[in-house]
Amino acid sequence: MAWLHNLLLVLISIPVKWLVKANTIPSDLAQELGIDPTKPILYLLRSHSATDQIALSMSAESLNLPKPNSRIAIAGEQHRSCLFLLEPKSVLTRKVKNTDIAQQFTHLFQLHRLDPALDIQIVPVSIFWGRAPGKKFSGWSDVIANQVSPSWLRKFFIVLFLGRDNFVCYSKAVSSRSMADLPGTDAELAHKLIRLAGTHFHRRRQGITGPYLLEKQELYNTVLGSQSVRSAINDEATSKNITYQSAQTQAKKYIDEIAGDYREGLIRLGDRVLTKIWNKIYNGIEVQHAQKVRTLAQNGHEIIYVPCHRSHMDYLLLTYVIYHEGLVTPHIAAGINLNFWPIGGVLRKAGAFFLRRSFAGNKLYTAVFREYLELLFNKGYSVKYYPEGGRSRTGRLLPPKTGMLAMTLQGLIKGINRPVSIVPVYIGYEHVMEVSSYLQELTGSAKKKESIFHIFSAIRKLKNYGYGYLNFGDPINLSNYLDKNVTNWRELQQAEPDKKPQWLTPVVNDLANNVMERINQAAAISGMSLCAICLLSAKKHAMTEDELLLAIEHLLTLLAKSPYSEVSTIPDISAKQLLENTLKLKKFEVSEDTFGRIISLRDKNAVPLTYYRNNILHLFAMPGLITAIIFARHSISRSDIKQLIAKLYPLLQRELFIYMSLEHAIDYSDSLIESMLDMGLLSNLDDQLTPPAPSSKAYYSAWLLNRSIQETLHRYAVVLTLLEREGSMSRAVLEKRSQQFAQRLSSLHGISSPEFFDKNVLGTFINALKENHLVQSNEEGQLQHCDVSEALRLDVISLISPEIAQRIQQI
Questions:
Q1: Which of 362, 374, 391, 675 is a Cys-bridge partner for 562, taking CB atoms 3.0 to 4.6 Å apart?
Q2: Are residues 178 and 324 both part of a single domain?
Q3: How buried is 782 (Cβ within 10 angstroms: 0-12 exposed, 13-18 middle, 19+ buried)?
Q4: 336 and 419 both lie in a single domain
Q5: Taken in order 617, 619, 624, 629, is the CA torsion positive or negative?
């Protein structure tokens, strides 16, 4: 009857292919799953469905995999390439029948006994139509819900309405030989494989559709019935002299203000709209390391996405990428400023939940929000929040806000039933649409309140934005993290789970810094950021095309030879193609004379481009510092370079969120020096490191690296010199006066970077001085100049240009 089955597939494949768009997850099976298309493949599906087979055929054809409706030769016998665990349900009953797969696997293992060389890749494939999570109460929408093994009639409606939202999800291949070599009879091995497959398909389904939707009444009952919220309601009633019912009503209003109202249909609609928008404004979205997150999901982890925040586009882009990578779209923590009509309602149905900028003084709101967050964790919803608390106005990572991380840890302590992992996410763009408004805010303009009119204004301005980049960083398993940092944390909290432990604040602060470092660890280099770092380092912000091309090649080669990290990424195209793509964004002035093209920054573009340079400045901090030391000293031993790095690196690490320890950084400096010597960016004369000869092609690139770190060193010199002149100052006064003088220095010397005198950046540096005991504190709590800070000041002054050093000395 195989011919009849194949005939049926052929007859229905024409209309089905017209209705279906098969989205393959993951797209690179060889790299992520180790599937070899040249070796025999046996596909294993959960349900015996003709439409599932057609979707699989469409996907397999696009991946150059063997056809699933063909026959496969095993030990001289012809077998089907597709096996199924379950038969479809009957139209009239809900009963699901098993297939004869147990007998087929038993026979397969018998063949393995006869042929010791026989080995087949058994590839489980999960087919999803739509991504709707289950509901506890049925409704009309369940007609097209993606059930385990729907009847042919229900499947007709599923394909009709959800055919464009089909996902073909491959899993790692199981070696039939490794299974056959396990102890047990052939029948026992067959039943073991079937049990494992059933569990796998169940977890795969949970990983892509998520848990049951949270009904409104269940939400009210769970949050309002918790011990912490009941206690907060009592305190609210007592402190405000109102009834318990009135305080409870207020708590219910807080739930309505906070809670998301996820609707999968809106996500599907948003997918279609966003696909059109991305195709219009971006040349492509580069996504890396998604397999790390898929592995966590398949292993049952509660996933918390913690991305950097560059733009309002982040909300859409990350959710869009997560959806297309075959993962559950997360509930998103959004600022209450975005809860305006009609956008607030749309975001809420896309999974957003809203939080106020400050919880201070409102114990009832704090208790409700914390309980809601813990409920999301315990129900198994993935969550996304931004540790910076707001969008970066300078392109650097902001100092992290720790409130959400603290609540996450407290939820874990109280008891979340499965492992919890934080996934840092780096997001970068070649064009951020809000940059002009960021610069206005940095120069003192008030932040504009979000409204529907601003949304329409932004949509009108949509144009070519180049490439977008999204890299998933190395996850942090929170239980393992606490095991390493807090002894017996489980036992300490069993007695009083609702009480804030004494160790929480320092551990959360350390975790927050770790998260920010891992975000920057996963940085993506773009053509825009490379051109920005080169042109902003050049005098008069202009270079010939040949100079810029060579500098880009040198920077890319340096990071290829000495990678910043295993998860950071660099473009895989030539410097010439990268530059051509970047020039199309029209951020630069291109002129031409008899000697060739000159690429420069327009005056109005120099300041905005610092934003893109700052996205990747941390990747070049170490090579920049090495070249700055060598250009300043002219000739210096490697050991003396390491001594200076040991002094300055902790400050750079704190400011730029560099993930390396001091020991790692010094080892990395060795690797960089070797690579730079090999490339000609440095010279070696009698065991002394020197700049390259001015006549060499690499000299200008090395000089640009030196220039890339100079503004940071200037800022250090300003703060340390002010403290040296005054002897002692309060932190607030030192920060304010440093900001004033840095702004003056910026005007006098044409320093175009707004972060040069940014309060957050200066405050981070002053904190780093205190944390590393490079300044002292007197009895009044003022910061005090000392021998250590003077030695550091002299070292910094020696690394900057004489004209800047002289100006700073005249403070």
A1: 675
A2: no
A3: middle
A4: yes
A5: positive
Digit-coded pLDDT (tens) for 622-672: 999 999 999 999 999 999 999 999 999 999 999 999 999 999 999 999 999
State whether 648 and 538 are in the same domain. Answer: yes
Specify whether the CB–CB gap between 470 and 285 falls below 8 A: yes
Asked which of 708, 727, 758 is the last residue of a domain, the reply is 708
Beta bridge partners of 354: 334
CB atoms within 10 A of CB 389: 16
87 in Cβ contact with 148 (< 8 Å) = no
Q: Which residues of the chain have pLDDT under 70?
A: 1-11, 90-96, 134-149, 152, 444-462, 492-498, 811
Q: How far is CA 340 from the centre of its chain?
A: 27
The domain total for the chain is 4
Pairing of strands 589-593, 596-600: antiparallel
Torsion over CA: 599, 800, 609, 757 (sign) = negative
Among candidate residues 708, 740, 768, the one where a domain is terminated: 708
Burial category of 500 from C-beta neighbours within 10 Å (exposed 0-12, middle 13-18, buried 19 and up)? exposed
Residues 498 and 547 grouped into a single domain: no
Give the domain extent around 148.
2-209
- Give the pLDDT score at 144: 47
CA dist., res. 374 & res. 360, Å (int): 20
Tell me the CATH number at 461.
3.40.1130
CA-to-CA distance for 498 and 450, rounded, in angstroms? Answer: 37
Q: Are residues 256 and 143 in the same domain?
A: no
Q: Where are the alpha helices (DSSP H) in 350-460?
A: 363-379, 403-415, 435-442, 452-460
The pLDDT assigned to 366 comes to 94
- The reply to whether 111 and 97 lie within a common domain is yes
pLDDT at residue 10, as a whole number: 63
For residue 602, the model assigns a pLDDT of 78
Q: Within this chain, do residues 265 and 226 fall inside the same structural domain, yes or no? A: yes
Residue ranges of the alpha helices (H) in 617-691? Answer: 621-633, 638-656, 662-679
* Beta strands in 533-626, from DSSP E residues, in sequence order: 542-544, 589-593, 596-600
Hey, is 307 helix, strand or coil?
strand
Domain identity same for 625 and 531: yes
